[in-house]
Amino acid sequence: MLPATLTTSPCQHCLPFKRQGFSSEQDFITFQDTLDEECRNGLFIRIVETNTTNEVESFYQCTFCNKEWELSTPNYSWRGYFLPKKSNALKHEGNSSFKTFQWKGKNGCGCCLGMIFLIVLLILYVLYNFFDFLLDALF
Ligand SMILES: [Zn+2]
């Protein structure tokens, strides 16, 4: 019942570009140049998307099989990749919840935990002072 177009596999034109990781920054730059050249040749169409975290994501669509490829830029220990993008339905469904979760995890949680910790410390300090005051008042 599912449309067959969702499970398109890469064709012979774009499959050779598949990369699981780049060995160096130079390797990535060379690869990106090759991709740009293929865009000029008409093999790929470049699609640039900005997601909720303001990271620019580059996608390339193969003009032969319409397969979308995702280019991940390497930085530090991250090797990057050039792999077929997950099917649109899956990507969008997972995207919103995952990105929201990731945002909380990255920016919210550490800050939140620190705040909670400070509040707990403050409450303990206030309680300690209060009991100290009570004891002083009683005895
Ligand atoms: Zn293709």
Topology of this protein?
Blueprint: H1 25-41, E1 44-50, E2 56-62, E3 68-72, E4 81-84, H2 88-138
Antiparallel strand pairs: 1-2, 2-3, 3-4
Zinc ion binds at residues 10-11, 13-14, 62, 64-65, 67.
Integer average pLDDT: 80
Quaternary structure state of the chains depicted: single chain
How many strands, what sense, and barrel or not for the largest sheet? 4 strands, antiparallel
Number of helices: 2
Across the major sheet, the strand order is 1-2-3-4
Percentage of residues in DSSP E strands: 15-25%
Q: Tally of extended strands? A: 4
The ordered string of helix (H) and strand (E) elements is: HEEEEH
Explained architecture:
- The longest helix is centred in the C-terminal third of the chain and has 51 residues, at 88-138.
- 49% of the residues lie in helices and 17% in strands.
- Strands 1-2-3-4 form a four-stranded antiparallel sheet, covered by helices on one side.
- The radius of gyration is 26 Å and the shape is rod-shaped.
- The N and C termini lie far apart (81 Å).
- The protein folds into two domains: 9-85; 96-139.
- The model is unreliable at 89-106 (pLDDT under 50).
- It has helices at 25-41, 88-138, and strands at residues 44-50, 56-62, 68-72, 81-84.
- The chain contains two helices and four strands; from the N terminus they run αββββα.
- By secondary structure, the chain is an alpha+beta fold.
- The chain binds zinc ion.
